[in-house]
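Dear V.,

Thank you for sending over the compound details. I've combined the ligand you provided, zinc ion, with the protein sequence from our construct and run the structure prediction for the complex. I'm sharing the raw inputs here so there's no ambiguity about protonation or stereochemistry in the SMILES, which I know was a concern on your side last time.
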Amino acid sequence: MMIDTEHPKKSKCNCPHADGKKIVCKHKIALFFTAFPKEADNYITEFEEYEREEEDREQERYDQIVKYVESLSKEELRMALINGLVEADESFSMPDKKLGSKVQILSLFSADLYRKGNWKI
Ligand SMILES: [Zn+2]
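Below is the predicted structure of the protein with zinc ion bound, written out as structure tokens.
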């Protein structure tokens, strides 16, 4: 096993997954982080920072959406919900990473609106 820190894809490992291929397998990653524990720490710190920022962004997006929805009239709400449901329905046929959150946001909307009595089934 050999790791090339400049060109990670040129590293070599003889596990079945990476043997003879330009694949960065978990062994290469493990060896890299064993050889450079500080890099591992930096990576984890960066990742945690990214996760926190992502949470903030999600919260911000959610707040914006809630604000937008609250500014709509009942008729506009109806149209927005119909469009959203149609869009979510279309997305169901294509596996999409964003689908989960889309459907989640939609049901959050519905629950929120329903609770406020703005929207009745
Ligand atoms: Zn490997």
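A first observation: DSSP finds four helices and no strands in the chain.

Warm regards,
I. M.
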